[in-house]
Amino acid sequence: MVAARLRCIRCGTRFSAHEHTNACSVCAPQVAAALTLDANREGPAPSRETLATGPQTMWRFDHTLPVNRDQAVSLGEGMTPMVALNHLGGDFGLPGLYAKCEFANPTGSFKDRMASSAISSACHLFGAKVIATSSTGNAGAAAAAYAAKAGIDCIVFTTLSASGPIVAQMQAYGATVVATPTKADRWVLLEQGVRQFGWFPTSPFFAPPIGSNPFGVEGYKTLAYEIAQDFNWDAPDWIVLPVCYGDALYGMWKGFQELVDMGWIKRMPRFVAAEIYGSLSAVFGTDSDVLPVMEQPYDTAASSITSPQGTFQSLTALRQSNGLPMRVQEDELLHARQIIARREGLYVETAAAATIAATRRLVESKIIGADEKVVCLLTAGGLKEMPMDAGANPVIAVPADLGEMIRLIQEKTGRTLST
């Protein structure tokens, strides 16, 4: 069990747990800094041997979470597969290439970890009656599912451009789904609900963005524990993940730091933040900790990571881990999404494919060495999105004639399947 209080990740000022909806009031004039859980654990941490007998969910690691496993609102999240990417590793000249397949979570994305931790905390620490979130994608679906499991109401603020399959998920779980004219309008309404009615927010809801609810971000620490466990309590050299507000990035960094502090692993992995518009890249090599709002000269298929402004928590995790940001171009994203499906049999959402594109570029530039071990976090599956590249491999109408079918396939695709 954790006795919860909050701490600013920038200046260290402490706050009560009930201030989880705020940014740091001390840093606010200069930097929008998030609060994080500064936990006082009761009793010693468990041993690695003890953990091995725990449940096959992320709640195996409840010593690092805000509430105990017997208080968890859980759908069986966590313990997702670690898959060796042998074909792409061979293509890239990187034999130690792996994927952590987060699309195997109950609602199909890594957001289940955050939702489980946040909603468990909402119920057992705060007595929340309504879960509220602003999301056009995975976070909204996860919040809706775990609120349903908890038996409490959920409202999701989205936009009319949100992906149809994910909106259908939100609706199926019984959430109240409302669409606003612009993304910014979502935050206006959500903040009013939080301040006036006491809704428990799982997502950001004001600008500049700082990240999601700190009790939810704790859930991502379990990724660090699982990855270390997957490698027999060692850390990979690099972890590459797509980044919007950096919740998973910061949570994973925090988890690995715990593992180093406990002596369970010897070193911290280096993190790579794959981003679209380059807010982190703009300041990473400077002394500044103020993240700029970037221009968005084009729309991207990677709808999960479209924020024009990064967060201080992302910058902190990158700098503290000796990592780096990597801006990925649209053509690289779409190509990566295609090759991981065709070479490895893994169908992922476009944002998840950013990890493959970033890794390839870093190997080609000799920043990642051929003998290093790299884990790509595949955050969600491709069925979450409307088809983005169906034209690249169309369905071919054929008659009930084998010879004619072979001819048409060759004509339409250039493939010869008769030999």
Question: What report would you give on this structure?
Answer:
This protein is α/β, with parallel strands linked by helices and 419 residues long. 36% of the residues lie in helices and 14% in strands. It has a 6-stranded mixed β-sheet with strand order 6-7-15-12-13-14, with helices on both faces. Strands 10-9-8-11 form a 4-stranded parallel β-sheet, with helices on both faces. It has a 3-stranded antiparallel β-sheet with strand order 3-2-4. The longest helix is centred in the middle third of the chain and has 16 residues, at 247-262. It is globular, with a radius of gyration of 22 Å.
Detail the topology: elements first, then pairings.
Layout: E1 2-3, E2 6-8, E3 14-15, E4 35-37, E5 40-41, H1 48-51, E6 82-84, H2 86-92, E7 97-101, H3 111-125, E8 130-134, H4 138-150, E9 153-159, H5 164-172, E10 176-180, H6 183-197, E11 200-201, H7 214-217, H8 221-230, E12 238-242, H9 247-262, E13 270-275, H10 279-283, H11 312-320, E14 324-327, H12 330-344, H13 350-364, E15 374-378, H14 402-413
Parallel strand pairs: 7-15, 8-9, 8-11, 9-10, 12-13, 12-15, 13-14
Antiparallel strand pairs: 1-5, 2-3, 2-4, 6-7
Keywords:
419 residues; alpha/beta; Rossmann fold; 4-stranded parallel beta sheet; 14 helices; 15 strands
Which residues form runs of ≥5 with pLDDT under 50? Answer: none
Please write the CATH class name of the domain at 82-108 and 216-390: Alpha Beta
Major β-sheet annotation? 6 strands, mixed
Q: Please tell me the overall pLDDT.
A: 92
Kindly report how far apart the N and C termini lie: 63 Å
